[in-house]
């Protein structure tokens, strides 16, 4: 039996490898996962939430270059290396976009950058503010590959950091939906009768409520925030899993291997966990891939409505909300770039779901 199971797994893996779009989507999802985990290593702006604002250079086009003067802070910053890698750097320095500067008689004279042809303010600071009096080391040209948002933040950094929420909400939401859905579906399908009728009533009531409306109600009950959205989305996605599991178990519990397990005296819990569930996981895996995509879209919608991830936390949905009006102002990329990110990640999960469906289909 184990040899047959192993051969079926190998056959499914071979079929999956032949699906170009499935394999491509898999590697794309892995890439997005690595970027989301180690976002602050790749971002040009490694401050917490990539939230370094420069209002004088707001909504600049991709490829915009400017010299940035960094004035060191006198405050001590005690932060571990791991904290910087996973949560960003607590930036206490002051960054100022400048158009020109000069050093004379122990003073740094610079002119602040001003947009729209305006003249920037000229200021003077002593070189003693810089370590060893070397101000030149603290003036660097910075390129904004994706341009800047309406607050003058690096759009590329915000996009990379925003991938973290969109990616991990899929895992958390699907994990919660699998735990609840598999439990409810297993109990309903295996025991039947009044238990099945009660659980199906709960499923139908939950199913009848619009998903976005239910998520909004749960989010408002739990409060606005990062984890509240994850939990709210997960609590609305278990219904589909429960229906699939229930239907599969109703069919599987009449199979001979289940009858043999009962004859050997195994209890119901062991029969469900050890014998039935491993044989019905193929459709559950496929629906989980679809739920990943659904969770990303729901979170984006919530962030667009302002009840998802809260500022200054970066989220693709919130980035679209902040900049959708720029579409008619000649700077559509501010909303299109995060929109394309959402679309590509959702498409990848849908394609990998289709590939898994074909690979796990024993009829083909």
From TrEMBL:
- Please state every residue range assigned to the domain named ABC transmembrane type-1: 163-353
> What membrane topology is annotated for this entry?
Multi-pass membrane protein
List the subcellular locations: Cell membrane
Biological process per Gene Ontology, one example term: transmembrane transport
Which InterPro entries is this protein grouped with? BP-dependent_transpt_permease (IPR050366), MetI-like (IPR000515), MetI-like_sf (IPR035906), OppC_N (IPR025966)
Is NADP among the key words of this record? no
- What is the name attached to this protein's record? ABC transporter permease
Q: Which organism is it from?
A: Flavivirga rizhaonensis
